[in-house]
Amino acid sequence: MNTIAAVPTTPTARRAIEYVRACESAPIAEHSFRSYRFAVLHAAHEGLRPGADFDPDLLFLACALHDLGTSPHAEGRQRFEVEGADLAAAFLTDNGLASADVDRVWEAIALHTSAGIAERRGSLTYLTRKGIAIDFGVDTECVTDAQARAIHAEHPRLRMAESLAEAVVRHARRSPENAPRYSLPGELLRERGRDGSGRTQMEEAAASSRWGV
User: What CA–CA distance (Å, rounded) separates 100 from 30?
Assistant: First the structure.
């Protein structure tokens, strides 16, 4: 049985955890950390080897930082995925990560909602999107019930889908450029409705998935 990957303990990883917890709501932060755990399980399920086929430290950083665009630090002038990637790149650059690695993490975050594109941009971008998708209950066969219980005990769900949808919609409302038509932010904004009472398909899908809300 695949073991659950431990969170990296490098100085940059530790600072990333502190940064995410300071910037994001608890439901969104825990979602980010679960996404890494699920991404590594999926990698093992597909026979991808850490260090050979993917860099686990970069995968952690991409997953951990992928929703920074929902935080108050985002300027609100571009899609949350892009602003999150920019914030992550600035944080990683300040922490001394090589520019080539910063670019790889930027791409993984910027494309994490781009189905059919992320999967073709290398293992880091692919696994980042895959781990996030698994946390929404998509393609969960790589995760045993025991592994799921352990991950959720460490990183509780806290009605993640509702919190994330609301955060993306709140960011989308700040500027038309944040929510272009047919993008994820644009669709969530449309589904939420002008009065803010609509329930999004993302929330509905998560609620009916293996993990629930």
Answer: 27
What distance in Å separates the CA atoms of residue 39 and residue 95, rounded to the nearest whole number?
24
Question: What would the two tokens of residue 88 be?
Answer: 């992550």
CA distance 128 to 63: 6
Q: What is the DSSP letter of 6?
A: P
Who's near 212: CB < 8 A, 6+ residues apart?
Answer: 157, 206
pTM for this entry: 0.95
Calculate mean pLDDT across residues 56-64.
98
**Where do the domains of the chain lie, and which CATH numbers do they carry?**
11-158 (1.10.3210.10)
> What is the per-residue pLDDT for 1?
46
Cβ atoms of residues 87 and 105 within 8 Å: no
Q: How far apart are CA 88 and CA 90, in angstroms?
A: 5
**Residue 88 near residue 61, CB atoms below 8 Å:** yes
Q: What is the DSSP string of 19-64?
A: HHHHHS-HHHHHHHHHHHHHHHHHHHHTTPPBTTTB-HHHHHHHHH
